Amino acid sequence: MDKERFLQTYIDIETKTFIKADKNKKLDNLFKDKEIYKIKLTSTDILEIIDCLTIKDIRIRQPLFKHLIYPILSDQVEQNNVNAIKGLLKLDQHLVSYQGYTKDNTYSSWTLLEKGLSISPDDRELLELSEKATRDYLNYTLHELPTGVLYGANGATFEECEELIQEVEKYEILCDKLQRNESELIQECKFYYPAYKTYLSVYKNYKNFDDYLDKECDRPK
Predict the structure, then answer these.
(1) CA distances from 32 to 63, 69, 92 (A)
(2) pLDDT by residue (tens digit) across 144-160?
(3) 3-state class of 155 per DSSP?
(4) How far apart are CA 95 and CA 109, in angstroms?
C-alpha cells in the first residue's frame, strides 16, 4: 500500500460508509493493516494528507490522528521542524481529544507555539496563531466580570494576576508587531488585572469585587 492508496481508502471509508458501526470497523481494520506502517510516511506526507482531507472537507478522525498524524508529527517536533509544529496546531482540537484518552500531555497548543516561535520568532503564521490564542484567553479571563478575573477554571490569585499583567504586556507587543488593533481588550485587561490584584488584598472591606469597583475605581467605558 502506498500513500495515495492509503489516502483513497480512508476517503472511501468516510464518504461511502454511512453506518457508524461499519465505519468504525473499517477504520479499525485499516489501521491494523501493517502495510500502512511500511510506507514510512514523512512529516511532509502527513501534512499533504491533512491538506487534502481539509480541502475535500473529509473529517480527520482520531484513529488517523492517533496512529499516523501524531506519532510522525510529534517526532518531527522533537527535531525542531516548524512545519510539523504548525501541522499539530492546525489540529489542536484533535490534540486535546488525544490527550484526553492517552494522558500524553507532552504538547499543548501553548507549548507548541512557544517552541515554534523560539525556533522561528518572525514566522507570520505562528505569530498570528499566538495572537489569536492569547486574545481568546484574555477574553476568557474577563468573561465572569464583575464577579472577578479568571485564571484557568478558577479566580486568579494575587500571583496569577501579576502573571496576567505580564501576559497582556507581551500581547500588546505582539499586536504592535502584527499591526493589529486590539486596544479595547488591552485597556480592559490593564484596568481589571491590577484592580483585581489590589482587591484581593483588601477584599474583607467590600461585599465583592463589583462593590470594590463601584467605590474605588473609575471603570472603563
Answers:
(1) 10, 15, 25
(2) 999 999 999 999 999 99
(3) strand
(4) 8
